[in-house]
Design goal:
Blueprint (H helix, E strand, L loop, with lengths): L3 H30 L1 H4 L3 E4 L2 E5 L39 H17 L22 E2 L1 H15 L3 H10 L1 E2 L10 E3 H10 L3
Antiparallel strand pairs: 1-2, 3-5, 4-5
Length: 190
């Protein structure tokens, strides 16, 4: 009994510290310093949840910019089944998927003969990537501006505003958040 009592006391104390106090402290600090991020970077309009700027959305209407394909679970952009397709370059299923995606892009914009950027036809490692490259956005610019009745220059200005630089100017690459760009497009007047 002399040995068990201190062990139980240590167990209860450490459980309270690591299981309750520490998580509460970290969450509290996070809410104070990064409230938007701690709450999932959710985007709402008129009290309606539109999505998260951290998770890709499934845009298939040609008047919107399309994001990276998703390979997550049974439906696209499934946050509960994040993961890549795990298909290697010699896998015939990957080749077929890429060909189908290129075909869909060409059908949505038949006059576009530019090379299709790789991020429009391949999924990211998470399958949830909310960003595309500026090249992928440029590839779609003419289609989107034409279908929305906007001048390409107007959409280009908006695209420039929503292009994020590499983090701290050196980490990663420039990127465009597809959901934020499409929501800004919806606000534009034709």
């Amino acid at each position: 009994m002399n040995v068990i009592r201190p062990l139980l006391a240590s167990f209860v104390l450490l459980s309270a510290i690591t299981g309750v106090l520490y998580p509460l402290a970290v969450t509290g600090i996070g809410k104070l310093a990064f409230n938007d991020k701690v709450n999932g970077s959710l985007i709402e309009k008129d009290g309606k949840l539109l999505g998260s700027s951290l998770i890709g959305q499934n845009f298939s209407d040609p008047k919107y910019f399309w994001g990276r394909p998703s390979a997550s679970g049974t439906f696209a952009y499934n946050g509960m089944a994040s993961g890549g397709s795990n298909q290697g370059p010699t896998n015939p299923a990957l080749k077929t998927a890429i060909e189908d995606r290129i075909k869909a892009l060409r059908e949505a914009d038949p006059g576009n003969t530019k090379a299709v950027p790789v991020d429009l036809v391949t999924a990211s490692g998470s399958g949830l990537d909310p960003h595309i490259s500026p090249a992928a956005a440029q590839f779609q610019l003419q289609r989107v501006s034409k279908l929305r009745g906007l001048k390409a220059e107007q959409v280009q200005i908006l695209l420039s505003q929503y292009t994020e630089a590499p983090q701290f100017g050196i980490f990663g690459e420039a990127r465009v958040n597809v959901l934020e760009l499409n929501l800004a497009l919806d606000k534009m007047k034709t």
